[in-house]
């Protein structure tokens, strides 16, 4: 029996309506789309010497560049480990890596604003991961996700689509921040990054519309090549940012691996509990939203809007978080970029295994992320974001008790820049609207409990309670 047949049998590829070739292609697509994390995560987690006060991980006797390259290796190992567990245990095409947003909270809030040593922050990540493992093992996480109101479940995919799109448009320079309107159109006619991004985006859309196999990969690579060619042979200088920089790799991660153990000895109970709670809440609902949203895009959900055997991908996520914290990185979570591979046809763990293998291979060479500029890889996010908008048709818009929670979920995700906040808005509004409409029988006690938990979370997260403990 050949390798292809063995993979096909192990992952039940044919039973899921796919092929080995499609699964591998989908894995490559997902990896290229999320590979930016190998560069972005270290830059966020590393303490930058030019900024007053601590704002990340700093190791005595090592420069910021050395620490940054060390975290890049840890990021790769953590992502590969977590995604491998997702592949062989859960048999789902979901990829994992340290989560954006959670790494910023780790560096700027926990280490920066709260002044908590980075070793203790890593200890909080490990504790959160262990709690997740326990809750997943007893079925509690699956039960909580089962409490998601139906309109919220059906809205998550569309909300994630908008969230993906705004992340991609920002990286491409098409949407930029504005002091008056918050966001506005970038300099698309003068900024080289924006110009090449627009060309690459419509090139990818054209390939996708013609059902060209691997259209997203071709769009990413084509855009990268054009940017490189114009910089190398044309009038554009390297300072324009069309070509990605290189990342040096430090393989000795011993100063980071296991650092959480010393962090446990520096715990201040109340503040530590609040930090664990925040990591827990955001990771829990980011992961739940991603699994449901990407599952919807892949047609994995059952007639009730639930992802069958969701406890397995949840366990993979919990193990990834625990391993990541032990190695020396912030919370590992399931990536919404997995939607790119699903849209390319990925349906089994072979897609995730491909992502894990590519992460491992990137240790032996210069990380692939260093060769793919962020603006090029993020073209995929906009394409998939547009495609995921079609999920909005599953919502009963003629019923306000369905439309309001769904609408709040969709709107808050991109505008608050958080999957968890969007889900929270939908869950909190659902029982209130049902009660106001006189449909109290549709609301279970669990809905009220979940809504109440989110209210507490918002108070903790935005009420200044964390910073008051400094």
From TrEMBL:
Repeat keyword on record: no
Pfam families (alphabetical): Xan_ur_permease (PF00860)
Transmembrane spans: 24-45, 70-90, 97-116, 122-140, 152-172, 192-209, 216-236, 350-372, 378-397, 409-433, 445-468
Bilayer topology annotation: Multi-pass membrane protein
A GO term for molecular function: purine nucleobase transmembrane transporter activity
Keyword field: Cell membrane, Membrane, Transmembrane, Transmembrane helix, Transport
Name used for this protein in its record: Putative MFS transporter, AGZA family, xanthine/uracil permease
